[in-house]
Amino acid sequence: MLRVIGLPGDRIECRDGRVLRGGTALDEPYLSFESEVVGTECAPVTVPDGAVYVLGDSRPVAFDSRHWGLISADDVTGRLVM
C-alpha cells in the first residue's frame, strides 16, 4: 500500500531512519516490522503545487517517491479511510 506522506508545501526528509514532515517525525504505527527495524532513508524535498509524496508501508521493498520522485496529485485515484 502507498500512502500520501507529503502535500504541496510540505518539506519531507529522513533522519535517523525516521520520516520528518516540516521537521516533525511522523508517527507511523502502520509500518511493517521490517520497516521499523531497517528505517527509512530519503533525499530531502519540498513538495511543489500539484504533486504529492508517497511512501509504501513495507519500506525495504516498496517502490515509491524515493525511487520515482513526486507524483501528480491528479494520479491519486482513491482514498482509504479506516
Form type: globular
Helix content: 10-25%
Spatial strand sequence of the major β-sheet: 4-3-2-5
Structural class: mainly beta
Q: How many angstroms does the end-to-end distance come to?
A: 14 Å
What's the rounded overall pLDDT mean?
90
The CATH class assignment is Mainly Beta
Query: How many domains comprise the coordinates?
Result: 1
User: How many beta-strand elements?
Assistant: 7
Can you tell me the CATH topology? Umud Fragment, subunit A
Number of helices: 2
What order do the SSEs take from the amino end to the carboxyl end, as H and E?
EEEEHEEHE
Biggest sheet layout: 4 strands, antiparallel
Beta-strand residue percentage: 25-35%
CATH H-level homologous superfamily name: Umud Fragment, subunit A
> At CATH's second level, what is the architecture?
Ribbon
Unreliable runs, pLDDT <50, ≥5 residues? Answer: none
Protein name: Signal peptidase I
Enzyme class: hydrolase
Catalytic activity: Cleavage of hydrophobic, N-terminal signal or leader sequences from secreted and periplasmic proteins
Pfam families: Peptidase_S26 (PF10502)
